[in-house]
């Protein structure tokens, strides 16, 4: 099909990027389990290596199954291109890699997935990069944190673990005024609930592992490029604007225009960092995305119902769901994610740390796992698991205090989930 704004989301989630297999007519996108692709002749090979012609060379860089997924996610996010990678964390490195150099920093929100806090506060230092953590509800603080060496601003749309909503437009305006790209992790919202590019984001990253695949079978990630950032407006992004020594002096922005970031991500990022998504994982994700809107509607409906019920429970101190009127983020839902506040939130128990442990151990339908965005309902006690590496201050700032559990509400019968939670809360209180 020809992809265009004339098609609705429900149509695009099934058809964008996919076409009947030219060789066999296979309707579902086949798993092209091939490492390499035969060149028509030596001239064709040279044109591919020179990036004068787009095609397949070697599956570390490009693969037809992965390409179909890249196109589909790019279309759903309203971007011009996308690069799939081996995980959500790989996508974050791949997003920053063309922008950063040793000595540069990225201004990031304190409200992030626990693994991202560790990646940004510790691991990226090995590359000579530095992250400055700021409360993104305080726009003055975001602005103040930006300095001459800042190369990007990073946040989540619906943020972990509490389901907080970021005012993306306001943050994008701050980044814009400083001539910097805003990178938004849209994993918890998915493009069905929120399209960050429409709010001014330059790049969108995802863990495909979560809602996009949707059934807990795949580890994968993707970076989507809006194609709107002018990489040549300053000398801050030489990998994109100046001759790139890692590709015999090619000027990516001059050569590829709005696709500069995408081409750089494939020709250099995947080529040299090798964080490639495998075609089988891409196939599972293509299948999963076909039902994204249906699943997200049910995720949101269940989350809304369960969060309201939990808020009225005696054993519960607080519920962070932004879809509740009690949430300070309630007003942002209509603006940022009008189809709903997602299905991820935290619950603070009056019984503290011990009650949380008893609660997660008693639940039956909810699985105690370090994952989110599955069809199955999931629970985790962040302070003793995903956020264990963080200091108490970082835990509190990230919404992962010791008396808090995070719920990822699945698409089962809401009444069954409520009965399960009720039983576990009673056990935790006794
Ligand atoms: C899971 C997750 C990640 C990391 O993704 P992986 O696929 O596990 O590497 C990043 N950000 C958010 C919001 C996530 O939920």
List strands and helices in order, with pairings.
Layout (H helix, E strand, L loop, with lengths): L8 H7 L26 H8 L14 H14 L3 E5 L2 H9 L8 E5 L4 H8 L8 E5 L4 H7 L4 E7 L1 E2 L4 E2 L2 H10 L4 E4 L4 H4 L9 E5 L13 E5 L12 H4 L10 H5 L3 H14 L5 H11 L2 H20 L4 E4 L10 H7 L7 E6 L2 H11 L4 E2 L9 E3 L11 H6 L6 E5 L5 H16 L1
Parallel strand pairs: 2-3, 2-4, 4-7, 7-8, 12-13
Antiparallel strand pairs: 1-9, 5-6, 8-9, 10-11, 11-14, 13-14
Bound molecules: pyridoxal-5'-phosphate.
Description of the structure:
The structure is a single chain. By secondary structure, the chain is an alpha/beta fold. The chain folds into two domains: 16-288, Aspartate Aminotransferase, domain 2; 292-429, Aspartate Aminotransferase, domain 1, CATH 3.90.1150.10. The protein is 37% helix and 14% strand. It has 17 helices and 14 strands. The chain has helices spanning 9-15, 42-49, 64-77, 88-96, 114-121, 139-145, 168-177, 190-193, 238-241, 252-256, 260-273, 279-289, 292-311, 330-336, 352-362, 392-397, 414-429; strands spanning 81-85, 105-109, 130-134, 150-156, 158-159, 164-165, 182-185, 203-207, 221-225, 316-319, 344-349, 367-368, 378-380, 404-408. Strand 5 (158-159) and strand 6 form a beta hairpin. Helix 1 (9-15) packs antiparallel against helix 3 (64-77) and helix 3 runs parallel beside helix 12. The radius of gyration is 22 Å and the shape is globular. Pyridoxal-5'-phosphate is lined by residues 87-89, 113, 115-116, 156, 160, 185, 187-188, 207, 209-210, 219, 221, 372.
Quick structural gist:
This protein is of the alpha/beta class and 430 residues long.
